[in-house]
Amino acid sequence: MLTLVAAIASGVAAIAAVIALVIPFIIRKLDKKEKRQELLEEYDIRKSMDIFPMSHEEREFYTQREILKNKLKKIKK
What we know:
This protein is an all-alpha fold. It is 84% helix and 0% strand.
């Protein structure tokens, strides 16, 4: 009986250890997906606001849009 309890406790400890290792990776993946979605939404907003000819403010706008585009490329699905 005592060995059965020890085996169950050992099994539970092993499962808890695996869960403790996996959860941070899941959280990181969800954060990465959320960040990508935020960048994509901001990029789409800026993309839909194309205006020519460009003033200084507009040039800054397009620069920021390209920066967002590059960040989106770095954060893959």
